[in-house]
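Side project, low priority. Logging it here so it doesn't get lost.
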Amino acid sequence: MFDQSKGGVLVLLLVFVSMLVIFVVFIVTLIYRYQKKQIAYFKEIEELKITHQNTLLQSQLEVQEQTFQHIAREIHDNIGQKLTLAKLYLNTLTYTSMDEVKSSVLDSLSLITDSIDSLSDVSRSMGTEVLLNNGLVKGIELELGKLQKSGLYQCDFKVNGQEIFLNANTEIVIFRIVQECINNFLKHANGTCESIQLHYTTDELELVIKDNGQGFETNSTPNGSGLINIKKRAAMLNGVCIIESSGTGTTITIKIPINENTRQAIPYSGR
């Protein structure tokens, strides 16, 4: 009888130990799977951060590249030509008539003054510095100023609502969207008028870019138009991009949410 009781206890003990081992294995497996999923989650977050940072870096580099191209064109086509003319006027002075000498010197001074003003304009438009020091509105004003200065295009820029300071990364991406739209207008639209509107509300920024160009089929993206990049940048800011186009022009509407993550804590020094 004693042996049967001892054997029964032993069986119960073995069953208990087996269940305990199974339970511990189950718990360890759950913890392992949880940690594995957690590691994969953090890895995915890091990859998203890297992708986000790379996209921001690419936007900054593209803004700078666009600025460098503008500077090169201004120096070669505008400033260089004026300084060459000024040098020509001074080299061809005959000193036979003081009136002619005075006229040539005054013309040369005028050309040099214009060149200095042009250099000042170029300096003010240097890359992302405009955005960092003065913000998105000033950056767009200078960008459209370059376009209108050519005398070939009519530009219009309006800001509705109370302007909200956005952080530098957000404004750089928005500014690059504007540059991309202007480039598309110059390369493909064959239009004469470009208008940009910023509409601020407490929780959203709406960017509307219109032109009077020839338009395109929205269901087939033109080669090199950059529309895919515009959509990607809008999505990067958790925004939406709406493109409407016809034979009378194109309208691109970008809606970007404004929250604590996108607001600029400290106003820009230049404002």
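Brief comment: The two ends are 97 Å apart (CA to CA).
Revisit when time allows.
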